[in-house]
Amino acid sequence: MPVPLFASSLAAHMPRIVDRLAEVAASGRYILGPEVEAFERELAAYLGVSHVVGVGNGTDALAIGLRALGVEPGDEVVVPSFTFYATAEAVAAVGARPVFCDVDPESFCVTPETVEPAVGERTRAILPVHLFGNVAPVSALRHLGLPILEDAAQAAGATLDERRTGALGDAAALSFFPSKNLGALGDGGAIATSDAEVAERARLLRSHGSRDKLTYTEVGFNSRLDAIQAAALRVLLPELDGWNASRQRVAAAYAEGGLAEHVTLPTPTGGAEHVYHLYAARHPDPDALAARLAERGVEARGYYRVPVHRQPAMAPYLPPGGGPDLPGTEAAAAENLALPMGPELSDEQIAEVIAACASGSI
User: Fold this and answer.
1) How far is it, in rounded angstroms, from Cα 58 to Cα 87?
2) Concatenated DSSP letters of 66-92
3) Helices and strands counted in the chain (H then E)
4) Residue 260 backbone dihedrals phi, psi, to 5 degrees
5) What residues does 171 pair with on adjacent strands?
6) Are 120 and 76 a contacting pair, CB within 8 Å?
7) Contact, 317 vs 222, CB < 8 A?
């Protein structure tokens, strides 16, 4: 039985999406405007924040979010190395220096113990990543006294101590790339915050640093969420909690079906509700296991095998003498394996994944 890595589809919602897109097309308002403003309000209410600022994509959300929090060229920002490249890329793009910290190899997230050694005199912000749908312990980082920008791109709808990601730090960056838990029909992103000044600066920066298209007070970005994406996201946002509950059902079925006999199951952060953007298990030889699964038609993939601090473009930002010693990161990169996940994964497909892992155990 073929089992895809991503088991989700918008087919059931497409008639409503098409109707909404037709309304937007007829309106003549395609960039920002009332559709985007409505989505910003609805997402802010869902997250439990005061403001959402729609932008062009998740990477721009990170860069604009950093600028809005006051990060300037020459500042340092602490980031995990076990993450998608864009997390550190956005820091460098605003002229700051990414300082790489380790992660807990079980949760795949930063902890106060991994972040604190990377904090220095020039540190201006911390950028924890809610990786694979798990939640970084943001509240535990507060004692460091630094602004926190959450990278919530992979964890829409997840919670920590009953508060949603996006509402845990001083601001948060979200992505609506189509494969995300809340995905659009193309690129899209947002900055969430309850700080009115941060929100106002983000709105300024997303539109070339101008409020009136006449006077430009900042060197900003051309990064605005378009109304087409906002219309689709307004249809899909009410479905997010149900989709996440289905993802959690799949994770529970994996555990109840004995998957732990063959791989190490994902470990949620204490107090967190993991939403399993990816079901990233661990295995001592994950690529060999993935090859065996492929023989049975089960898709599996390792993520971030080369951590960001070892990517060639990051070499100028490393300390003299080479990169930092990040044993948790190296273990996470070497051992993780994403198994099939999604709200539409059937009981039969779940059983097939478990059976394939059993036959592929080494």
Assistant:
1) 9
2) HHHTT--TT-EEEEESSS-THHHHHHH
3) 12, 12
4) -65, -15
5) 149
6) yes
7) no
What is the SS3 assignment for 126? strand
Q: Distance between CA 175 and CA 183 in Å, rounded? A: 8
How is residue 297 annotated by DSSP? T
One-letter amino acid at 340 equals P
Q: How far is CA 7 from CA 116, 141, 153, 278, in A?
A: 38, 34, 19, 11
Closest CA relative to residue 228, chosen from 362, 35, 45: 35
- DSSP secondary structure, 200-265, as one string: HHHHHHHBTTBSSSS-B-S---B---BHHHHHHHHHHGGGHHHHHHHHHHHHHHHHHTTGGGTSBP
DSSP annotation of 118: G
Residues in contact with 44: Cβ distance below 8 Å, sequence separation at least 6, in sequence order: 50, 51, 52, 192
Six token digits for residue 329: 């990161």
The pairing of beta strand 189-193 with beta strand 171-175? antiparallel
Between residues 322 and 246, which one has the greater pLDDT? 246
Would you say how long the chain is, in residues?
362
Residues 63-86 pLDDT 10s: 999 999 999 999 999 999 999 999
Two structure tokens written together for 230: 């906002």
Distance CA 233, CA 228 (A): 9
Domains of the chain, first to last: 11-238 (3.40.640.10), 240-359 (3.90.1150.10)
Give the pLDDT confidence of 108-125 residue by residue, as tens digits: 999 999 999 999 999 999
> What one-character-per-residue DSSP string does 299-338 give?
--B---SS-GGGSGGGGGGSPTTS----HHHHHHHHHEEE
